Amino acid sequence: MSKRNLVLIIIFFWMVMVPFFLNSNVLAAEKWESLGQTTIKVIAEVKPYISISISSPVVISDNTPIIDFNCDRGPGIYQAKYPLNIRITSNSGMELYFEAHSLRNEENKLEIPAEKLSFKFDSESDESNLINLSSKNAVKAFESLTFIDQVYQCDFQLEISPEIKAGTYEGTIIVQVLPKI
Amino acid sequence: MFKFCPKFKPNQLKICLLLLFLFGGERAFSQIALNISPPILEVEVTGGGVRNFQIELINGGEEEITVTVDLADFLLSPEGNTELQGKGETSFSLSEWMTTKQDKQIVLKPGEKRKVGFELRVPRGERGARYGVVVFEALPREIPRGKIALGIRTGSLVFLTIPRTEKIGGEIKEISIEESKVTFQNTGNTHLEVEGSLLVKNPEGKVINRLHFPENPSLVLPQGERYFSIPWDKESLLPGKYLLEVRMSARRGRQLINLDRREIEYEVLKGGEKQIGG
């Protein structure tokens, strides 16, 4: 068989088979209809979303999760009594941030700067994975460029240095999730 | 130790506590959750036009939550982090053009879904693009003494483009060999999806290597700067003279627009390195 004939055969098959494959669904639907069946069009709209949930075994009166430190051994680094569980679900990219303000003792106008607070994920033993919070801006904990459905266990630490006076301090940490752009 | 429960033997009590921990502990975890859709809204409205949009909120937790609705603006840091800013604090603020009839606070029962409506009104004569964010926060009503209370915050980022008024431009601000970093600035009035590369050439201009920045592609807002890192091991360059060329471009649909290119001379000496031009 000459090359020319081979090329002609390939072109012929291409011209016959391409329309067949393109129209196979239409043909199948028509065949079903001719047999007295109907096709039902299925439409599913999947909306983009971001979902954040936090949970902790320790709560206050309105069931808000809290972080609790018992700093009873003088200067040093204290681990929060319980970790915080964070679940993030999103069908697109996202970024997780923590925002904290100074811990305050209103009676004596004392403060512990937010920088003394740090966190790490999933009980990582490596202390180098600790990330310090900042009183200036929200600190990025991690980002995902694609979809995510993950539960993270977040351990918080508080550093008590000698200059921090004894007292009861309180504050807030905001767990912030934004879409990744 | 177990005086308060005389009917149980210590071992029985331990088993009871273990069973309680295994099967009765679930309710002890209090959970607050918030779901929003869509997280990003891209709208095109001409000057003098109005667009209404909705954001859906779902309380996905087990507790009733009070969600505060707020309008704000945002910036992108040179590292690519999203930074929320107060209303009107950015030069390309959108929050001042957005309004809502919704009360500032919404109480959502567990599982409850709510659609919040917004109106976006673009003044006549405005050009380019604007950026805002609808912020949803579920914060603690009170901070207990000696504790750190937790809250959640999320938001929908709103990108407004005023069609046919966009000006596209960008320039390479700095090439730092020391820090292996390129600083790019968007000089236009609309956001750009920027990508770039570094070409390592010999003195005759022949390309030896092409290194694509790992940050490709990165979104850069108008007048915003973005750092791109050079993924090289500069110690592995043999002594000699090189031409380093940085090329930056932006992707608009299928089109790739060249924004800027800059060349510097670079020499690696036997004992170290030297940047000649910049």
Plain-language structure description:
The complex is a heterodimer of chains A (181) and B (278). Chain A folds into 2 domains: 1-43; 50-179, Jelly Rolls (Sandwich). By secondary structure, chain A is an alpha+beta fold. Chain A has 1 helix and 12 strands, in the order αββββββββββββ. Chain A is elongated and about 95 Å long. The model of chain A has no long low-confidence stretch (mean pLDDT 86). The model of chain B is unreliable at 1-6 and 16-28 (pLDDT under 50). Chain B is mostly beta strands. Chain B folds into 2 domains: 30-141 and 148-161, Immunoglobulins (Immunoglobulin-like, Sandwich); 170-275, Coagulation Factor XIII, Chain A, domain 1. In chain B, strands 2, 4, 5, 7, 9 and 10 form a 6-stranded mixed beta sheet that branches. In chain B, strands 13, 14, 15, 17, 18 and 19 form a 6-stranded antiparallel beta sheet that branches. In chain B, 5% of the residues lie in helices and 53% in strands. Strand 1 (50-56) of chain A pairs antiparallel with strand 1 of chain B.
Topology, please?
The complex is a heterodimer of chains A (181) and B (278).
Chain A (H helix, E strand, L loop, with lengths): L2 H32 L15 E7 L9 E2 L8 E4 L4 E7 L3 E7 L2 E3 L4 E3 L4 E5 L9 E2 L6 E6 L3 E13 L10 E9 L2
Antiparallel strand pairs in A: 1-4, 3-11, 4-11, 5-10, 5-12, 6-7, 8-9, 8-11
Chain B lengths: L9 H14 L6 E8 L2 E5 L5 E9 L6 E12 L5 E4 L12 E2 L5 E4 L4 E9 L7 E10 L9 E14 L8 E7 L4 E6 L5 E10 L5 E6 L5 E3 L4 E5 L10 E13 L2 E15 L2 E4 L3
Parallel strand pairs in B: 2-10
Antiparallel strand pairs in B: 1-3, 3-8, 4-5, 4-7, 4-9, 6-8, 9-10, 11-12, 12-16, 13-14, 13-15, 13-17, 17-18, 18-19
